[in-house]
Amino acid sequence: MKHLIDPMDLSVQEINELLDLADDIISHKERYAKVCEGKKLATLFFEPSTRTRLSFEAAMMELGGNVLGFSSADSSSSTKGESVGDTVKVVSCYADIIAMRHPKEGAPYLASLKSDAPIINAGDGGHNHPTQTLTDLLTIRREKGQLSDITIGFCGDLKFGRTVHSLIKALSRYDHIHYVMISPEELEIPEYIREEVFEKKSLSYEQVRTIDEVIGKLDILYMTRVQKERFFNEADYIRLKDTYILDMPKLKAAKEDLSILHPLPRVNEIAVEVDDDPRACYFKQALNGKYVRMALIMKLLGLEA
Q1: Is residue 176 annotated as part of the catalytic site, yes or no?
Q2: What is the pTM for the complete model shown?
Q3: Can 31 be counted among the known catalytic residues?
Q4: Does residue 129 have an active-site annotation?
Q5: CA-to-CA distance for 289 and 57, rounded, in angstroms?
Q6: Quick count: other Cβ atoms within 10 Å of Cβ 223?
Q7: Annotated catalytic residue: which of 3, 39, 53, 101?
């Protein structure tokens, strides 16, 4: 593992090893407090981010390392016309590992061709967000004890949601998973996911229009935001938007051990009242992101506790 650009860069064995390491970090935090002493992480965020950038920075600090970087393109030399490749080449002289977010799809991959330090893709446009996928996998495994024999529902914007696409592809390598796709017609899962993942691998899946008709059989519900701007007209949005808001009345029919996930940020697709329900896992999910990034940093740097 020289770089991590796409979650599919990792084998199932490598994913399981990363999740095992993250679990051990959670159980023995003190053992890992000085693993990255003397090491530096550069966070190159060419577009704004709150959770992902701070999660990477917290991860490196808790490993005993240091952090440098920038949080928007406006504070980088890209405003002077410097290429991403040159920026990364120079920064890799100063840092041992780089976490990079960029609005253009494929930019972290191009950066990896120039960098002398490992590159972690922290999100490239609508393409990939591999550390979010690892976060989701860790959360599912910690909540359910496994990554197989589950029924998972994806709800909301399934057409444009990079986190949904990446997680489906990652889970497709595990056994006996039933996928339930909950969305309006306008935001259905893309045809390429249907053809290249579900149908090519003969996976069990279904497409429905409401949460109510399937919530009782779900082990995991992965919520995403239905965005007004994705609809062709406002009337359709107004007609459908409340259908995809998870609230306590909808949860009455759910299993007692349902796990509710969300990549965040949340707007109004999960009612605040749900936060106090023990089935709400999205803030634990955000915390898990820090631990899985700690594990990833260690793996890419070849470090052990």
Answers
A1: no
A2: 0.92
A3: no
A4: yes
A5: 12
A6: 24
A7: 101
Give residue 131's pLDDT: 95
Point out the catalytic residue in the list 3, 39, 40, 52.
52
Please give the pLDDT value at position 197. Answer: 95
Residue 284 has pLDDT above 50, yes or no: yes
- Cα distances from 258 to residues 151, 220, 221, 246, in angstroms, run 10, 6, 7, 13
- CA-based nearest residue to 223, from 269, 289, 272: 269
Catalytic residue among 53, 129, 159, 162: 129
Residue 130, classed as helix, strand or coil, is helix
Question: In residues, how long is the chain?
Answer: 305
> In terms of Cα–Cα distance, which of 252, 261, 52 is closest to 144?
261
Amino acid in the structure at residue 119: I
- Catalytic residue flag (residue 224): no
**53 part of the active site:** no
Determine the pLDDT at residue 81.
56
Residues of 145-164 as b/e, b for ≥16 C-beta within 10 angstroms? eebeebbbbbbbbbbebbbb
Which two structure tokens, joined as six digits, stand for 10? Answer: 């990792």
Cβ contact 17:142 at 8 Å: no
